[in-house]
Each structure stands twice: as structure tokens, then as C-alpha cells.
Amino acid sequence: MRVLVAEDEQDLADLVATGLRRHAMAVDVVYDGTAASERLAVHDYDVLVLDRDLPGVHGDQICQDLVGVGARTRILMLTAAASVPERVAGLGLGADDYLPKPFDYSELVARVQALGRRSQAPVPPTLRRHGIVMDTQRLQVTRDGRFLRLSLKEYAVLEVLMRADGAVVSAERLLESAWDEHTDPFTTVVRVIISRLRAKLGDPPCVHTVPGAGYVL
Fold this sequence. Notes:
It is built from eight helices and eleven strands.
């Protein structure tokens, strides 16, 4: 899942991003509305965690712009404006969810995960393919009953492949879904993670390379 955190309190923004990354999410961080608008114009995010009162482009305007173009990005407003009228106004702008500060971190993670599921084609919380069972709530994977110790990045790549349900996934899409904007698009990280996944998944091989197209489970 690809997430953008737009929050002008830098310590809070970095803390939120670090925590979301621990749940196998690829997270970019910006500290003002102008930068948020620029990132949203370039990347296809699943979820936007949006501080409403951003400097530069206001959070309300960012929300309205996303809704206006029909973007699939789900919006979680994260703001100190916590009164009922303010929440109603935020949701009326097109936000999908609203979480006032201060917040419980486990609730934030749960809300982001729920919005991420809504931004994609509906899938069950447990994915099953070729003897692989993935529990997307606990971030646990087994194959033929054998528990697999996957890194967060290996898990994220495998989840994209499993959600594709037999369709070919390009290396570019894997980079867009499982890595943040600081990753060099010409790097070999995708091949490295695919190689590690194959080794951990074992036999019979189930992750195949489609020359010139990408990978398929």
C-alpha cells in the first residue's frame, strides 16, 4: 500500500510515517500543502493522511481537488479541528474518514488499512494462492502450513502479486506500490526482493518472470 502523509508538524509526520512503514506500507512525507499537491500529481497513492490546516495549499483545497478529479486515493483527515461541526464540514468536502488529534496510534493504523482496502478491488482479509495463505491483518504468511519469515518489503511485494490474482505485475508497478519516492527507479531492488521471495517460498516455484513484462504468481 502506498501512503502520503501531509502534516506540517514534522516530528508528528515522521512518527506517523515510521509507524505505518512497520505495517509494510510505502510512505512518503510532506510538510506543506504545495508539496502534497505536487506529489499527488505524480504518484498514485492508496491513502492520503491529510492535516487539514496545512501551509501553502490548504488541506480543504487538496481534498476538494482530489475528489474533483475522481482520484481513487482515499483521504483520512488528521487534524486538531475536532468539533462535530468541523468533522461534518471535513467529511462534506469529500474526506473518507476524520481522526482528531490527539489520536490513538493503533486506531490510525486500522483506519489507514481500512481505507487502503477500499481504494483497491475488494479482496478478503485472507489471501490464498498456490498453497500460500496471507493474513493481511496480522501480516503473516504460510505456504503449505509452513510459516514464512518475510521482511516487510518481501511481504509488501508478495501482497501485490497475490492481489493481482494471476495477472502480470510490472517492476514499475511493484516500485510504485511497495517503495517510497526516494527509491531509484533504475535500482535492482525489485529483482533482489523477488529472488529472496522465491528462496523463502520454496518449491514448487510460483513466482515467475515474464520477459519484458514483469512478474506473475
